[in-house]
Amino acid sequence: MKKETIIKNTKGLHASLAAKLVKVTSKYDVDVKLYYKDKVIDLKSILGLMSLAIPSGENVKVTAEGVDAVVALKEIEALLK
Question: What is the pLDDT of residues 36-59, one digit of tens each?
Answer without folding.
Answer: 999 999 999 999 999 998 999 999
